[in-house]
Structures are given as structure tokens and as C-alpha cells.
Design a protein that fits this description.
- By secondary structure, the protein is mainly beta.
- Helix content is about 0%, strand content about 50%.
- It has no helices and eleven strands.
- The chain has strands at about 1-5, 10, 15-25, 35-40, 45-50, 55-60, 65-70, 75-80, 90-95, 110, 115-119.
- The strands form two sheets. Strands 2, 4, 5, 6, 9, 10 and 11 form a seven-stranded mixed β-sheet that branches. Strands 1-3-8-7 form a four-stranded antiparallel β-sheet, with no helix packed on it.
- A hairpin with a 4-residue loop joins strand 7 (about 65-70) and strand 8 (about 75-80).
- The radius of gyration is 13 Å and the shape is globular.
- The N and C termini lie far apart (about 35 Å).
Length: about 120
């Protein structure tokens, strides 16, 4: 399985970005997917996750009400709509996927996409 993120960039505080994660290869093994992020000097942390059917989602407290995770299984693509961005959202955002039915760190990672929010 290969995961490729896109959609990162530089945005002003209060702005929006939409990240995409395209999966290829043996995508039939993928169940839950998630977005993680890692800021300089900090550990990687869960941002949001979603089950295969999209019926269950999980969000970190720091993004609730601002970010929305979704997926289109027909396109093998997951999305993260990020609104009301804050400077503290600046980080490298990683796509993650795995065989688990619930949102836990999976075996597959993308290369990451940089999100920078200016104040």
C-alpha cells in the first residue's frame, strides 16, 4: 500500500486548507485511516481518524469543530478539511492506514505534507 498526501501549504490564521490522501496498491486490506501531525520538537499525534465505512470518526480535542475527516472509498482517497486554522496547527501532516477496524496507528504511512499557518 502506498499513501500520497497533497494539499498542504501556507495559509493565514483563520484560513482553510483541504488535505487529500490517495491510496494505491493493495487497498483492499485498508480499513481504518487517520491523519496524524508532527510539529518541530514534538511527538507525532493523532488529528482525526475514520473507519472504513465512514460511520465512526475520532477527533483530537484540539481540532473538534474546526476539522472534518472524510473518505471516498471508490476513489481510495481520504480527506481532511481544515477550517479556522491557527498558528499552532503548523506541522507536517501524515496520512495513516491499516488493517484494524478501529482507529489505531496502522502499518502504512505517507511521506507527509507541510501545513504552515502564519499569524
Amino acid at each position: 500500500v502506498q499513501l500520497v498526501e497533497s494539499g498542504g501549504g501556507l495559509v493565514q490564521a483563520g484560513g482553510s486548507l483541504r488535505l487529500s490522501c490517495a491510496a494505491s496498491g493493495s487497498t483492499s486490506v485498508i480499513n481504518a485511516m487517520a491523519w496524524y501531525r508532527q510539529a518541530p520538537g514534538k511527538e507525532r499525534e493523532l488529528v482525526a481518524g475514520i473507519t472504513r465505512g465512514g460511520d465512526r470518526t475520532k477527533y483530537a480535542d484540539f481540532v473538534k469543530g474546526r476539522f472534518t475527516i472524510s473518505r471516498d472509498n471508490a476513489k481510495n482517497t481520504m480527506y481532511l478539511q481544515m477550517n479556522s486554522l491557527k498558528p499552532e496547527d503548523t506541522a507536517v501532516y501524515y496520512c495513516n492506514a491499516g488493517r484494524s477496524l478501529v482507529v489505531v496507528p496502522g502499518d502504512y504511512w505517507g511521506q507527509g505534507t507541510q501545513v504552515t499557518v502564519s499569524s
